């Protein structure tokens, strides 16, 4: 027996003095309301309503139980409201600062169709991990080596001019090589990629092929790095999607394979699993994992 449904029907029928009106207030057919209250009376062993007259009236037993029944129904309604608010409360998610506004908006819209409401907090890698530890966010897309994460994005080099080669090698940037300007070309690493599995690997290749230390540098912001690339012949370490957004020509790196990896960290394990499994494809598209190795952005 649906005890809560029966008590709700009893309260509404009592207040309206009619099975027809009480059932309508409960949003159930009259026959259902009658069956529920009859079942409740059998369960309690006493009659709650006097049906002998045209208008339904309470028995003495029914009058005694009505106040408690009203409190029970009000409490149930309040709990249903709280549950709905909890279901719709935004899950604050720390995301990479490289995610565009449009990509995040699309992700939020797609998540909403799955009853997941997201509130984004863009931040660099180290800060995202700290935000989870301090519980300032419920979950974060954390940086990991590509092979260890739930998502991975390949990185390459992009410049303002279209290179003739389909693959770029760091050794071709050595100072003094024929055809290069007096100013050595630089590779800019943006803050999102200032992590050991990207930065340190590039530094090792830089040293191995004889580039100057300053030729592979970490930029303060993506804007600073992009401005240098657009104004000079420098190169930006980035994903194909970022290159397209910035109007740059992207090529893979021949000397070393580097990429971004992402996973979910959360203070509560259920939040991490919820994001990782229910939004896997949507987050992948936002991060750019569905991008192919491409030619120049047009």
Structure explained in plain terms:
46% of the residues lie in helices and 17% in strands. The protein is rod-shaped, with a radius of gyration of 32 Å. Helix 5 (101-112) links the parallel strand 3 (91-96) and strand 4 (118-123). Residues 291-298 have low confidence and may be disordered. The chain contains 11 helices and 12 strands. The strands form 3 sheets. It has a 5-stranded mixed β-sheet with strand order 4-3-5-12-6, with helices on both faces. A 5-stranded mixed β-sheet has the order 9-8-10-7-11, with helices on both faces. A two-stranded antiparallel sheet has the order 1-2. It has 3 domains: 3-87, Orthogonal Bundle (Arc Repressor Mutant, subunit A), CATH 1.10.10.10; 91-150 and 261-287, Periplasmic binding protein-like II (D-Maltodextrin-Binding Protein, domain 2); 153-258, D-Maltodextrin-Binding Protein, domain 2, CATH 3.40.190.290. The chain has helices at residues 3-16, 19-26, 30-44, 60-88, 101-112, 125-133, 196-209, 222-231, 240-246, 269-278, 280-287, and strands at residues 49-50, 57-58, 91-96, 118-123, 139-144, 151-154, 156-159, 187-189, 216-218, 235-238, 249-252, 259-266. The longest helix is centred in the N-terminal third of the chain and has 29 residues, at 60-88. InterPro entries: LysR_HTH_N, WH-like_DNA-bd_sf, WH_DNA-bd_sf. It holds the Pfam family HTH_1. Belongs to the LysR transcriptional regulatory family. Keywords: DNA-binding, Transcription, Transcription regulation.
What would you say the CATH architecture of the largest domain is? 3-Layer(aba) Sandwich
What do we call the CATH topology of the largest domain?
Answer: D-Maltodextrin-Binding Protein, domain 2
- Beta strand %: 15-25%
Question: Regions with pLDDT < 50 over 5+ consecutive residues?
Answer: 291-298
* Average pLDDT over all residues: 89
Count of distinct structural domains: 3
- Number of DSSP helical runs: 11
- List the secondary-structure elements in sequence, H or E: HHHEEHEHEHEEEEHEHEHEEHH
**Estimated radius of gyration:** 32 Å
Give, in spatial order, the strands making up the sheet with the most strands. Answer: 4-3-5-12-6
Structural class: alpha/beta
Task: Give the helix proportion (percent range).
Answer: 40-55%
From the N-terminal CA to the C-terminal CA, the straight-line distance is 66 Å
Overall, the morphology is rod-shaped
What's the total count of β strands? 12
Query: Quick one: biggest sheet?
Result: 5 strands, mixed
CATH class designation of the largest domain: Alpha Beta
């Amino acid at each position: 027996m649906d005890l809560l449904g029966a008590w709700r029907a009893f309260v509404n029928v009592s207040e309206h003095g009619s099975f027809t009106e009480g059932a309508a207030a409960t949003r159930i057919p009259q026959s259902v309301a009658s069956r529920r209250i009859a079942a409740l009376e059998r369960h309690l062993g006493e009659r709650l309503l006097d049906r002998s007259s045209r208008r339904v009236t309470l028995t003495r037993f029914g009058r005694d139980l009505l106040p408690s029944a009203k409190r029970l129904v009000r409490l149930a309604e309040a709990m249903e409201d709280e549950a709905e608010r909890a279901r719709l409360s935004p899950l604050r998610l720390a995301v990479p600062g490289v995610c565009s506004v449009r990509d995040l908006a699309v992700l939020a819209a797609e998540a909403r169709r799955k009853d997941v409401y997201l509130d984004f907090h863009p931040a660099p890698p180290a800060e995202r991990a700290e935000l989870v530890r301090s519980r300032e966010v419920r979950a974060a897309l954390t940086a990991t080596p590509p092979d260890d994460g739930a998502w991975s994005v390949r990185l390459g080099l992009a410049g303002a001019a279209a290179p003739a080669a389909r693959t770029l090698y760091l050794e071709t940037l050595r100072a003094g090589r024929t055809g290069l300007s007096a100013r050595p070309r630089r590779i800019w690493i943006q803050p999102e990629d200032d992590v050991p599995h990207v930065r340190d690997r590039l530094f090792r290749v830089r040293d191995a092929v004889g580039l100057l230390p300053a030729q592979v540098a970490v930029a303060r912001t993506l804007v600073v790095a992009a401005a240098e690339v657009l104004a000079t012949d420098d190169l930006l370490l980035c994903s194909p999607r970022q290159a397209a957004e910035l109007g740059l020509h992207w090529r893979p790196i021949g000397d070393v394979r580097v990429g971004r990896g992402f996973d979910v960290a959360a203070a509560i394990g259920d939040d991490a699993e919820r994001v990782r499994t229910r939004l896997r494809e949507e987050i992948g598209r936002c991060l750019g994992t569905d991008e192919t190795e491409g030619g120049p952005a047009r």
